Each structure stands twice: as structure tokens, then as C-alpha cells.
Amino acid sequence: MRRIALVIEYDGTNYVGWQVQPNGISVQETIGGAFYKLIGERPVLHASGRTDSGVHAMAQVAHFDTECGVPADKFCYALNTRLPSDIRIKASLETPPDWHARFDVREKHYIYRINNAPHASAFTRNTALHMHYPLDEQRLQAAAKLFLGEHDFNAFKSVGSKAQTTVRTVFESEWVRRGDELIYHVAGSGFLYNMVRIMVGTMIRIGQGFEEPETVSRALSGAERSLAGDTAPAHGLTLRRVKYDLFDTEKLLFGSEAAKDPAFIPFI
Amino acid sequence: MRRIALVIEYDGTNYVGWQVQPNGISVQETIGGAFYKLIGERPVLHASGRTDSGVHAMAQVAHFDTECGVPADKFCYALNTRLPSDIRIKASLETPPDWHARFDVREKHYIYRINNAPHASAFTRNTALHMHYPLDEQRLQAAAKLFLGEHDFNAFKSVGSKAQTTVRTVFESEWVRRGDELIYHVAGSGFLYNMVRIMVGTMIRIGQGFEEPETVSRALSGAERSLAGDTAPAHGLTLRRVKYDLFDTEKLLFGSEAAKDPAFIPFI
């Protein structure tokens, strides 16, 4: 029995999220279906974490165990021929048998894209939130900095969260401008359910001038959900990178130079 | 009666092209339908030129005449509320009554995107051609330079072309790398039917090593279609910019700085 890890890119628009759901097609079951066509079995896929309906991934990671003799680095090619074009396996590799895609996560990076132009874009309609209201970049940046470090993110989780502790550490938190887009880049040890989207929703209100950046500090210390803002829409969010001791998806896919640039987005 | 110009962005994936066709929905008739819902009439839309099925536009230009009293710069907002999200009117302005979106074109720019990575991309699947074969950038660039200047492009047109003369002038012709993508940027006085796609198809064979860059010169001087390569797939092509004496779409939409960078793509 071998354990294989997959690095998976998906446009989440047409899926109910990573995990199998009764109300539609998930990314997980779609990859399971490709496996079935390939090797006649449906191995259980363990992902680095769930992504919600409409959320995208540049580098989701999932592992499975198999007796199938396909060379580890060839699973990606074999699966891609059996997958729809909005899901692509970018890499596949063998891991130690006790390595785990979820429990061994060291760091996860997300981006949240806001198209802050007068008109929406025909091209980024599914991958960036369009907001034509002015957003003050200085205020966004000031708010983003307040998330850095270890905090109780209880105010920044959805009711559906089942996490045992709500303390998380944020390593990077900044907004980067690219043309009409404001891209929020956040890296952390882990994230609660809907945490990034609630952080963004809170910052949007601050960027619009309805709240002060210090609202973030109050919500972090008070830890009450009502102190934070709305949950920003799912389609602006992309899981960009997962880091393990064993490998780092960004270095694996794009080389180490790319990984240094928070604004780096390899698709355009 | 006023003449109004529209600057239009579209993801061409779900359309049979700009022009009304019997076999599917065109961009032109979709905008016509939005007009009908807005003002109860269907003005004739004259575009800078047709785009084929699957071809995209960052800045197609079209004009129409109307008696409708909507302020010129408000047509974009009014139409966008009645258009599907893969077509966006980015700007609208009043022009002199004898100005013409097609006959007054001074320069058009296209980009052709090749995703030259081992695996296709879930995100650029509809906007870039995926080729996993190695492409030699030096050879692509050498071939691109040979298109510069005034030439008879008879070898680079499709049989469907009805142009009276096949002489065209190319002002810019270069490949730019962005991550895994090779992006061909071409600017000219005008283009024959399928001309850019045949130019790219010819360069792809050169980049793969099947032909020498000088093939371009032979095809330009011999002017026989058989000397040029295949027509590259439509979905890699995007109409990026149209220049008139009256206005330049790129400066209108993105400011003059953007217009100086051939690799600039405002959507990601």
C-alpha cells in the first residue's frame, strides 16, 4: 500500500465545494469518479481542509492510499484525462505512509480578490468580488496588520465551526494592488470555518469608512461574532498554497522565486 | 439623433462570435437584446470588426445611433444591468455623427495566450491555448520580428476572407513570458480573416522546431497559404485594444501607463 499526495487546482464555480454534499457535485467526488474510471476503485481522499461552494484552489492538497501500480508522479497525467477541465491535478507524489494532508499542515495561504472597478469584469466574474464603491487602501492595510500574530479568532468563525480551539496564528496579512484589483493575501497556521471571508467582510466595512481599523482589535479581544463584519462572498476566495515539512505546493509548482511574491498569481 | 460608441469586454466562450449567426447566440444580438429591454428598440451595432466563435475581447468597440435621451456615459451602466455577466460594457461615449467604429480604426492590438505548462489550467482553460510541448522562445521571437512592417499577408488569411487587398502593416509583434504563459502581442493597421491565428499557428511550428523562422519571410513573399501553418485555436485569442484618432480604448479604460506595457493584461 502506498500513500500518494495530489496537488489540485480547481475553479470552484460549478461545485458545492470540496466535500461531498447532498445538494450538488463536489470536487472530492468528481476526483473520486476519475479514480474509478482509472483504476476501478474509489480511494478515500483526505484534503488539507474543506473549501466552500464557489471557493477556488490553486493548490489544494489531498492524499489517498492505493495498491495501484501507477508510478506516483504519473497519477496527475492519468487523472487529468478523466477529469472535467475545471479541475486539474498539477502534481502527484508518494509520501511516507503516516504523512497526512490535513494533520501535517504547517501553513496555509489564501487570497481574496476584489475587483474595485466601476464595472464588473467578464473575465474575473467568477474569481473576484466586484465592488464599485471606493475602498480606502490605507484603511484596508491598517486593518490587515492588526490580524498579524496569535489571536482568539472566535469572532471570525461561522456558527458551523466545530474547531476545539479558536486561537490561530496569522503570519502574513496584506493587501496588494494589481490594476483594478485589490488582492488580500493571508497566511496562517490554520483557519476556522469562514474565517478568511469574515476577516475580509470586516475589512471591507473598514475600507468603505463605516468602521475604524481598530474594530479588528476589538473583535479579536472581545471574541464576539457580532463585533466582526459580514461574511464576504465565496467566489472571491482562492486557496493559494499549502506548506508542509515534506513539501510546499508553491515551490513544487512554480519554483522558489514565485513563492516570495505575495502578489504572484500564476493564472491570468 | 446621436451616435454612441461602446467599449465592450466579453468572454467569448459561450458565443458564436461577434456577429449574428444562424447556429447560436452572438455577442452582437445579446447586446441588441439588452438594448431592447432598455429602450424598446434594437439599434444596429457596427463593430470595429468581427471576432470569431470563442475569441474574447478586452476592448471591442461598436457604435449605434439613437434618439434615446439616456446620457452617453450612462449607457454602460444601464446596459450592464441587462446583460449576462460574460459581456460587460466598460465605457460609453458620444461621438461625432460621421465617426465610424470600423472605418475609422487606426490600429488594433490582439494577444494570443499559450499556457506552456505540463498541465492545463482550470482557470485559463477558456482564454489560453494549453501546449505541454516545449516551445523555444528565441525561435518564437525571431519569427515574430519578421512580421513587422508592411507585407502582403495573403498566405495568412482564411479562404473566407473577402478583403480587397491583403497588404497590411504590423507595428508591434513580440512574445512576452508571464509565468507559465507565452503571450503573443501584435498591433497592426488591420487584420485579415483569421490572420493572427494563422500567424500564431505558423510560429508554433517554428517554436517546436518543425520549421525555421525564415518560413515567415518565405510565406510573406510567396504569399501562398500553403507556406504558412495551421490556424491556432480561437480561444487563445483576445482583441485587446482599438485605437482611433478620437480615442484609444486602453487609455480610456486603464490610463496611459498601462498602454505602454505589451504584457499588461488587466484581468487575471
| Rg measurement of chain A, Å | 19 Å
- Kindly report the average pLDDT value of chain A: 92
Helix content of chain A: 10-25%
Hey, roughly how much beta strand do the residues of chain A contain?
25-35%
Sheet with the most strands, sense and barrel status of chain A:
10 strands, mixed
In CATH, the topology of the largest domain in chain A is named Alpha-Beta Plaits
CATH architecture of the largest domain in chain A: 2-Layer Sandwich
Strands of chain A, total number:
10
CA-CA gap between termini of chain A: 39 Å
Shape of chain A: globular
Number of domains of chain A: 2
Chains forming the largest contact: A-B, 33 and 34 residues
User: Which CATH C-level class of the largest domain in chain A is it?
Assistant: Alpha Beta
Q: What's the helix-strand series of chain A?
A: EHEEHEEEHEEEHHEHH
- Look at the structure and name the CATH superfamily of the largest domain in chain A: Pseudouridine synthase I, catalytic domain, C-terminal subdomain
Structural class category of chain A: alpha+beta
Total of DSSP H or I helical runs spanning 4+ residues of chain A: 7
Instruction: Identify the quaternary structure here.
Output: homodimer
- What low-confidence regions of chain A span 5 or more consecutive residues with pLDDT below 50? none
Summarize the structure.
The structure is a homodimer of 268-residue chains. Chain A is of the alpha+beta class.
Task: Describe this entry's structure for a reader.
The structure is a homodimer of 268-residue chains. In chain A, strands 1, 2, 3, 4, 5, 6, 7, 8, 9 and 10 form a 10-stranded mixed sheet that branches. In chain A, a hairpin with a 2-residue loop joins strand 8 and strand 9. Chain A starts with a strand and ends in a 9-residue tail after the last helix. The first copy, chain A, is globular and about 60 Å long. Chain A folds into 2 domains: 103 residues, Pseudouridine synthase I, catalytic domain, N-terminal subdomain (Alpha-Beta Plaits, 2-Layer Sandwich), CATH 3.30.70; 134 residues, Pseudouridine synthase I, catalytic domain, C-terminal subdomain (Alpha-Beta Plaits). Chain A is built from 7 helices and 10 strands. Chain A has 268 residues and is α+β, with helices and mostly antiparallel strands. Chain A is 22% helix and 27% strand. In chain A, helix 3 crosses helix 4. Chains A and B meet through helix 2 and strand 4 of A and helix 2 and strand 4 of B.
